[in-house]
Amino acid sequence: MIESPPEYKYDEKTFLLYNQLRENGELKEINDAYLFWDKIKYKAKIASPQEYWSAIKMARILNSQNVTFGKYSFQFSSTDFILQLLHYCDLNIGGNLGSNVGIAETDKKMFMISSIMEEAISSSQMEGANTTRKKAKEMIQKELKPKSKSEQMIMNNFVTMKYIVQNKSDDLTPDKLLYIHNLISNDTLDNKDEEGVFRENDEIYVVNYSNSEVVHTPPNHQEIEVLINELCDFFNNDQKIFIHPIIKGIIIHFMIGWIHPFSDGNGRTARALFYWYMLKNGYWLTEYLAISTIIKDTKNQYEKAFIYTEIDQNDMTYFITYHLKTMEKAFISLKEYIGRKQKEVIQAAKFIKIPNVNDRQAQILKIISEDEDRVLSSKEIENRFSISNFTARADLNNLQSLGFLEKIQVNKIKHNFVRSKDFTKIIKSYKL
């Protein structure tokens, strides 16, 4: 249960307190963290909690912008902390690969091919998908048919992310939104007729399942058409008053969750639209940020950011602040991931010394040297390195011809590869 804030009032006393808080630095500290009433009330030392809250609200409203969808009005503030994070994201998520994460542009696919998989897995796990990351990655890499609802959710997310990357320059329309939902929800809803269609009733609530508390009642289903049309216009066009593109993307994410236009899959759809909007507006590195991985690890904060917004008169700054922190963490995580991948390349470098072995084949040798029971398919190599199936088969066949791999027949047509019995002896013969 989250306590609603008290009514605030604006009078001369509030204005004087506002100036005092601004001068002593308390205002900046509270608004940079964008604390809610449940924490602010304990910080009131020089006035009553209600008076303190009124002064904080005055500061927020004086520094706010409004956005309207249908008959609903929302607002957000641009705090120093938000401006700082926006600058950080502008520098790091919209620049070039070499300057951002310290690797050459030509190595992009080699280092980042699994990022979309990470996003697909985490976004699905947030909505209840229950499978291991290793099993999920294997399913995607080998293009195996999903065997459960959880695996289907993850595969759907992966397919959706690939579709968005390929169509990132398109405008958003209600029909395309329905198509995105259809991709995401395919074979995962209790009622298949609800895939790719807006809800047609109001029998839907956002519930905190730990205590069965209803935390959000979405708008009437008859309002969905107007709200979605206005959201599409917001997605596609500039507003009369400038809104930073990253903030616009976060607002789009929030609004899909708030409108709740579908019977299920709203969270996955909202996160997919955020990616689409960011890519459309030049923040290309978003494609490789596993933002849902961070959200999944801070899900309680994610949910509270939605609730705080609604309780505090649709002040979206709570959600914007949380989301920007998440993006910063996702970028730091990406840099760490790149660092690990670079180490893997360095570790694989010794295999490059083997005559007639290219850099991909060296990495394949590293994989099977560390996992002697590993079974490789051309499809997995194709997906892992983002190469054609012909090139993947050529790599594997070359390693077989050099004696490192052996073929095993799967059926009359298909075969896979395993480490050869003489692998260790051949490696030693090269005196690496």
From TrEMBL:
Active site per database record: 260
Domain Fido, chain residue ranges per copy: 172-325
Organism listed in the record: Flavobacterium faecale
GO molecular function, one term: ATP binding
Matching PANTHER family: FIDO DOMAIN-CONTAINING PROTEIN, FIDO DOMAIN-CONTAINING PROTEIN DDB_G0283145
Glycoprotein as UniProt keyword: no
Binding site for ATP: 206-216, 264-271
Keyword Transcription regulation: yes
Entry protein name: Cell filamentation protein Fic
